[in-house]
């Protein structure tokens, strides 16, 4: 009589049951849960911090002058090299002097003639004074000689003015640098006729000052209001009167290497953009900074305040919230939600809310710990700090 297949399978399982039960008896004695993970804990760094706001802007020259002809004539000499640095008073262009020298000579000759005529009329008037007292000449003749003397004196004054104008025009044939700075390229070549006067004058070159140099940027209305609130409460942040230190870096620089000061905030907010213009001044002795160049400026965004700082490695993320794990006296990790601020210059994160100065925060081993779990802490003291006096970057 044959047995069905399921009967044979049941019999085999019954025979294997004692063997399977005996397998558990070989487990080594004394095994239990794993030991608490070892983590590094440190106290937050406490430091005075000034929040910093960053803006992008352009450099502009303090002074920019177009060199234009003031008298008309042929350009005779050019005394500079395109793009060179010039000092105030340096000779730049010379217009042909000869016509103006002739005008000066002619004006001086006319003046000498007028002075001779004046001398004659004055002597004639002196004689007339005695003659009119002696009744030798009439009162009408005396009045005529008086009028001639006055006319001669007016002629002398007019010719003296003509001489001064002719000498001034002669002086204008030499065009000198009105400011110190860098000159651009010449706009007119030697031998060309240039036009002076008060109408459509000829532009010959352009000069921009470089040291000091200004940096202009725009800030939004909310930032402007924040600065004004601080200023009105006596906590100067970005003042109109200068003295507030700012820092700047160029496009190819990684740190804010240039230091200057705020010297101007505009008096109106642009209606189209909702921004207001600010300006800072920087020294530029090596003339590296040039008008039109872009840069990023960092201005104080708050008064100095005490802040707690931690490395970013100590901060975890839970969806959109940030947290740290604080180790209590019983070595239990407790989760604390925190409000983050900007990074400092030494790459420590400012913690605005959620921890206290004496808390022991896990700074290494955060991923090995769950809230409420026991840990084995290794004290590090305080969070690693960088150079003294960092500023917060927004």
Model description:
The protein is α+β, with helices and mostly antiparallel strands. It is built from four helices and 24 strands. It has helices at 5-23, 98-133, 139-172, 221-232; strands at residues 38-43, 45-49, 51-61, 64-68, 73-78, 85-86, 91-95, 174-176, 181-183, 193-194, 203-208, 213-220, 245-249, 258-265, 275-282, 294-300, 305-310, 316-318, 321-327, 333-343, 349-353, 361-364, 376-382, 392-393. Residues 17-24 and 386-390 have low confidence and may be disordered.
List the defining traits of the structure above:
Elongation Factor Tu (Ef-tu), domain 3; 4 helices; 34% strand; OB fold (Dihydrolipoamide Acetyltransferase, E2P); alpha+beta; 4 domains; elongated; six-stranded antiparallel barrel; six-stranded antiparallel beta sheet; 26% helix; 394 residues; single chain; conserved putative lor/sdh protein from methanococcus maripaludis s2 fold
Per CATH, what is the topology of the largest domain? Answer: conserved putative lor/sdh protein from methanococcus maripaludis s2 fold
Low-confidence stretches: 17-24, 386-390
Widest sheet: strand ordering: 2-17-21-20-19-18
Query: Residue-averaged pLDDT, rounded?
Result: 84
What structural class do the secondary elements suggest?
Answer: alpha+beta
Query: What is the CATH architecture descriptor of the largest domain?
Result: Beta Barrel
Give the biggest beta sheet: 6 strands, antiparallel
Order of helices and strands: HEEEEEEEHHEEEEEHEEEEEEEEEEEE
The best one-word shape is elongated
């Amino acid at each position: 009589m044959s047995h069905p297949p399921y009967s044979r399978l049941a019999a085999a399982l019954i025979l294997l049951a004692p063997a399977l039960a005996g397998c558990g008896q070989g487990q080594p004695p004394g095994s239990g849960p794993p030991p608490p993970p070892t983590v590094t804990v440190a106290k937050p760094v406490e430091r005075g911090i000034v929040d910093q706001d960053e803006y992008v802007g352009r450099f502009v020259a303090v002074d920019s002058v177009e060199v234009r002809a003031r008298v008309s004539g042929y350009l005779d000499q050019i005394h500079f090299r395109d793009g060179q640095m010039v000092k105030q008073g340096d000779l730049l262009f010379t217009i042909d002097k000869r016509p103006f020298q002739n005008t000066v000579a002619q004006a001086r000759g006319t003046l000498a003639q007028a002075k001779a005529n004046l001398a004659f009329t004055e002597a004639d008037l002196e004689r007339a004074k005695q003659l009119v007292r002696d009744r030798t000449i009439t009162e009408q003749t005396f009045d005529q000689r008086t009028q001639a003397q006055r006319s001669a004196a007016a002629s002398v004054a007019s010719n003296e003015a003509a001489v001064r104008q002719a000498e001034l025009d002669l002086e204008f044939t030499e065009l000198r640098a009105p400011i110190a700075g860098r000159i651009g390229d010449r706009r007119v070549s030697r031998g060309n006729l240039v036009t002076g006067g008060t109408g459509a004058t000829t532009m010959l070159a352009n000069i921009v000052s470089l040291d000091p140099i200004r940096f202009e940027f725009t800030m939004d209305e909310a930032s402007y209001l924040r600065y004004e609130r601080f200023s009105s409460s006596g906590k100067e942040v970005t003042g109109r009167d200068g003295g507030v230190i700012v820092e700047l870096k160029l496009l190819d620089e990684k740190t804010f290497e240039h230091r200057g000061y705020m010297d101007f905030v505009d008096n109106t907010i642009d209606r189209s953009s909702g921004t207001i213009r600010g300006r800072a001044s920087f020294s530029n002795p090596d003339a590296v900074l040039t008008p039109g160049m872009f840069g990023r400026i960092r201005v104080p965004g708050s008064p100095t305040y005490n802040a707690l700082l931690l490395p970013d490695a100590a901060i975890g993320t839970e969806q959109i919230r940030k947290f740290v794990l604080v180790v209590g006296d019983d070595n239990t990790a407790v989760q604390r939600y925190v409000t983050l601020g900007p990074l400092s210059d030494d790459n420590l994160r400012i913690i605005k809310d959620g921890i206290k100065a004496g808390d022991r925060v896990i700074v290494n081993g955060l991923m090995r710990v769950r809230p409420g779990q026991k840990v084995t802490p290794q004290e590090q003291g305080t969070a690693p700090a960088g150079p003294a006096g960092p500023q917060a970057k927004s």
